Amino acid sequence: MFLSRSLHKPFSATASSSSSSVSSMASHHLHHQNGDSTITTTHSPPSKKLKATPITPSELLAEFSHHHPSTARINNGSFGSCPASIIAAQRKYQLQYLQQPDDFYFNRLKPYILKTRSIIKDLINADHVDEISVVDNATTAAAIVLQHITWSFFESKFNKGDTAVMLHYAYGAVKKSVQAYVTRAGGEVIEVKLPFPLKSNDEIITEFKKALEKGKSNGRKIRLAVIDHVTSMPCVVIPVKELVKICRDEGVDRIFVDAAHAIGCAEVDMQDIGADFYTSNLHKWFFCPPSVAFLYSRKTDKIADLHHPVVSHEYGNGLAVESAWIGTRDYSAQLVLPEVMDFLSRFEGGIDGIRKRNHERVVEMGEMLAAVWGTHLGSPPKMCASLAMVGMPACLGISSDSDALKLRTHLRDCFGIEVPIYYRAPNDGEFNPITGYARISHQVYNTTEDYYKFRDAVNKLVNDAFTCALLSD
């Protein structure tokens, strides 16, 4: 269901509830072999699944009533949003731990995480649950993969000067991680320079092939390709399947897909994509509380030696088991996925239906804003997922990253609008170019009025002859 007080009718759901609450598991015990360690899993007896009750408009409002009431929150992409019922489920897990920490650690935590991993395995069409590890976020997953690459350099499996290729659009923290790990180990990092705005996938593929050719120059080998699935800023859906195939054809050793936004926002299928590693956050577009992500590692002998960068008692028992215990901390965000699946079952088409409608609505709202402001989208609709880049009026005078951040703060503080702004440097010879793009998101809690509020705020700034030069640091 999507709330809209003026343009669209809400939708309802008829799907079945997908899994019973993990917190109710309390009957007989089964043993599961997981890597080198045996864990005891607690299951409830089989029970008849009840048909999910379609969520009503009032129930949907209640699920997100903790959102700031006067803020148009069109930035789901940054931090996601967690429904009230999932927050309540998380609190139950937290209390289970606080009531009896020893019992929780020895008898409950591993089975709960195994349940989460099993759900993820089915969601992404992986071959086996052993390919799924649960981690804090996509940045942690990147550290795991890059640590593995670094050791390959140190152990002389890779040669000094061998290369890693990544997109210029790559997330800032991941770009820095690649530099920190690969360059310090003796490798060279090559960025794929992409234009913006983008007109088609062909532009991405062409530039990617150029970077691979550069990476192989002078007899070097490309040891790692880091490919985004849905880039962060500017946001665009990358033709990940095509790029992975190109990497295979060119003999790239390891392929890591950083898909922080993807699960719940784009179609995710490990058999179809074919990467060695794939990570996505569950707290961005999959309604989990922050922070939780998965790392998929395709089972091959070549990439078997993976370890969590935080070494704890489970070291050597396989990445999935290592990741399930990295010390005393709050693991509750990693345990609520069964309840999230129940929540999703109340929407028509489940997560696939939500994803489809989010895409349609964000494109519709983006095109509405672009038409009013006389601008354009940053990419064709098919490359937008549940986010879209919308050009802002050139007269706002966005001339730097600092201007973009100050304008974002101004919109938040003075108009109650939360939306990221991207600065795009003008090309030589451009006349009156669009240098600022808003990254708008759409999630089930958004209303048409959220985007009208943004439209009207920008129109007021334009009518008042506002420019970013008027904003102080």
TrEMBL record:
Matching InterPro entries: Aminotrans_V_dom, PyrdxlP-dep_Trfase, PyrdxlP-dep_Trfase_major
Highest taxon of the lineage: Eukaryota
One Pfam match: Aminotran_5
Alphabetically ordered keywords of this record: Pyridoxal phosphate
Region (Disordered): 1-52
Domain Aminotransferase class V stretches: 112-380
Composition bias, Low complexity: 12-27
SUPFAM superfamilies membership: PLP-dependent transferases
Comp. bias (Polar residues): 35-45
Protein name (database record): Aminotransferase class V domain-containing protein
Species this chain originates from: Escallonia herrerae
